[in-house]
Amino acid sequence: MSTVSYYTAEGLKKLKEELENLKSVMRPKASADIAEARDKGDLSENAEYDAAKEAQGMLEMRIAKLEEVYSNARLIDESHLDTSKVLVLSNVKIKNQTNGMEITYTLVAESEADLKTGKISVTSPIGKGLLGKSVGEIAEITVPNGKLKFEILEISRD
Prior knowledge:
The chain is of the alpha/beta class. The protein is 39% helix and 25% strand. The protein has a 5-stranded mixed β-sheet. Strands 1-2 form a two-stranded parallel sheet. A hairpin with a 2-residue loop joins strand 6 (138-143) and strand 7. Helix 1 (9-38) runs antiparallel to helix 2. The relative contact order is 0.15.
């Protein structure tokens, strides 16, 4: 059973580029590796051939998985998103009520999450806790270390 994934235009473009690279560059390379290994002689004792076949199988599994994800991908129309509440693609400035630290996150689909660039998944504990909140509200979020309280300071879009 496949699930629908929501992507920004940038995320969907990256997904498509990766899929195209696997199909047009990596697939022919895997076939060439198999042909080269096959030319080296007896297949029953040819570890290089076995490795090339296994690599091809892994590549085909990755391609099939990405094709499924891509076929169930939906582009998020940012023009229809409400800016008064925290939603997917919101830039949210929050303040930790315990230590007073302020941080800004962008809520994105799980596949686009990257903590180094400040993008957190809407399916993460913090992402789930922030969804639907408005400026001034306190989000009480249960994380593995206990409960955290964040005040929503600002909500914006790029």
